[in-house]
Every structure is written in C-alpha cells, then in structure tokens.
Amino acid sequence: MSDSVTMASAKQAQSEAPTKPPFENMVWIPGGTFLMGSDKHYPEEAPAHEVTVEGFWMDEHTVTNEEFRKFVEATKHVTSAERAPKAEDYPGAKPELLVPASVVFNKPRQRVDLRDCYNWWIYVPGANWRHPEGPASSLKGKAKHPVVHVAYEDVEAYAKWIGKELPTEAEWEFAARGGLNGAEFVWGDAFTPNGKQMANTWQGEFPWQNLKADGFEGTAPVGSFPPNGYGLYEMAGNVWEWTTDWYQEHKEIPQSCCASFNPRGGERDKSYDPNMPDIRIPRKVMKGGSHLCAPNYCRRYRPAARMAQPIDTSTCHLGFRCIVRVNK
C-alpha cells in the first residue's frame, strides 16, 4: 500500500472520532493493530511485533513553556531540577553535585570520542525549565518551544493537574506512525523527501558541527514542521518525549504484556541500569529522538526508536505530550 493511500485511510479514521476533543489542540488517534519496533536498527527495538491499542485523544504538540508556566503558577509546583537531590539517594555522590541542577548539551569545538557522552553533556547547577541553558539563560522568545528539564514526576503532576494522562510506549508509537504502518519515518520511507527537512534533527557531524539545514540549533517552536497523518506535530526530533512504560528490551517483555493496551509496560524492578548497581533509579521509555539526533550518532528520529531515561533525570532535550483515553 502506498504512503498516500495509507495517509488517506488515517485521515478518514481520524474524522470518525467519537466526540469533540476534550481539550483544545487535541487530535483523535483511531487505534488499531500495528507493527511495533524494528528488526533493522538498534537492538533494543527488536523484535518487531504486533500490538493493538484502543483509540484516544492526543495533544497535537508537546507541552510548551507557556502551557507549563500556567501549571506552575496555579499549583506552585517546584520541578525536580529546582530541588537539591537527597544524599541518601545517591551513595558516593560528590557534595558539589547535590544541588539543584539539570543536564545540558555543550557543543564541543572539534571532533571528540563518541564513546564518551561526557564530551558533550554537562550537569549545570541552576539549569531548569525556566533557565534551559543555565542560570544566566531565560525563556525569552521561547514561549512556544517545548518545555524541557522536566523529570517524570513533573510531567505526571502536570498531566494530573490538567486532567489528562501520559501515553504508553505503544500508544505513542502508534500515534507517531500516523497510519504509515511499518514506515521508516513518521512521514514515510525517505528521510528528506524531495530534499525537504521534515524534522528538527542534527545536520552535520555530531556533536561539534551543526549545519542547521532545518533552520534550527536547539529546540524549535511547536508546529514548525509538517504534521503526520493524524495531525500530530514533531513526533520525530525536536525533543524526546516521556512515556509511562518501565524500560525493558522488547525481547524481555512477555508477549501478553504488549499485545494490547497496558498502562504499565515493562517492570519497574527490571528497568534499572545494570551498569549502575549502587544507584537503583528506575527508568522509563522515552520516544521520538531530538534535535541532537544525527546520522552519525543516535539515529533515533524514527517511530520505532526508544531509549531508557532515569525518572529523576531531566535534560535540555526531553519534554512530553499528553493523551485522554475514551475507554478506561
């Protein structure tokens, strides 16, 4: 089936939403059975397997800084990055690291060893959603950009406050595909169809050379790139997005767990990073890739791609969007 036929089917299904959107700027995701994951790329995406999800409403774009600000002003919520970590949760941590901080990308000036991510990631005291590059930065001109530096507890709190929920990994991936079951990218099988940049990703050699062929370095305002077949913007690139699933490789999760909607995919006790046995911070699945994904590193601007994210860790390239389920 061609992309155009599949896209037409997706739009027809979208028009059959059961009610009006429960909130502004939400689109109907019709649900169905699809091929989740991939056998062609990173090992954590395999095996590709059929999954069925029920229909739901989804935010057409990630939650923005101005939307998150309304939540903070209404609730006085203090994000994880704005609070000092507890020493007992991080055995052996240096005292200077136990301060309010978050993880920020720092572009090196020359080629570096790609095996060591500390060549471009730094832990910046004072970095948070209000100050995305550090304490001297601000949100000036970024009201419509995705909110970043939000840990899992922060996005859960926002969703509860506004009356929505967070998507499972399967729901997120089904929605991202936009009706193009099995396609390589959110928009089809060509990364730049007719030479057009379809997402905010990294052009050039990561992490030191960004050619900005897509017009951006860093995050872009939501709605900057074409929507997918369901009317969702930036389901690839810009910022990674939180899901509710505890991280496990697909091959480790029983098929019965993935065959239909499951609000808690994976198992918490099996989501810990085996390389950090002394610090047992559970991890959730994040999806979609970000503006830091490049052909030479982290080619994860695809719907099947997935990565593990510790629930206590916020970064400058991770945000979220919400859903509303019709059948609970």
Give a count of the beta strands, DSSP E runs of length 2 or more: 11
Query: How many domains make up the coordinates?
Result: 1
CATH topology value: paralog of FGE (formylglycine-generating enzyme)
Provide the spatial order of strands within the biggest beta sheet: 9-8-7-10
Q: Quick one: overall form?
A: globular
Radius of gyration: 19 Å
- Say which CATH homologous superfamily is assigned: paralog of FGE (formylglycine-generating enzyme)
Q: Summarize the main sheet.
A: 4 strands, mixed
Task: Report the average pLDDT across residues.
Answer: 91
Per CATH, the architecture is: Alpha-Beta Complex
| β-strand amount | 5-15%
- The CATH C-level name is Alpha Beta
Please trace the helix and strand order, writing H or E for each element.
Answer: HEEEEHEEHHEHEEEE
Q: With helices defined by DSSP (H or I, 4 residues minimum), what is the helix count?
A: 5
The unreliable regions are 1-15, 256-264
Distance between the termini: 33 Å
Task: State the share of residues found in helices, binned by percent.
Answer: 10-25%
Specify the structural class.
alpha+beta
Folded structure, characterized:
The chain is α+β, with helices and mostly antiparallel strands and 328 residues long. The longest helix is centred in the first third of the chain and has 12 residues, at 3-14. The two termini are 33 Å apart. It is globular and about 55 Å long. The strands form four sheets. The chain has a four-stranded mixed β-sheet with strand order 9-8-7-10. Strands 1-4-11 form a three-stranded antiparallel β-sheet, with no helix packed on it. It has helices at residues 3-14, 65-75, 152-162, 169-177, 255-258; strands at 26-29, 32-36, 49-53, 56-59, 101-105, 121-125, 240-246, 283-287, 307-310, 318-319, 323-325. The chain has one domain (3-325): paralog of FGE (formylglycine-generating enzyme). Mean pLDDT is 91; it is low at 1-15 and 256-264. The protein contains five helices and eleven strands.
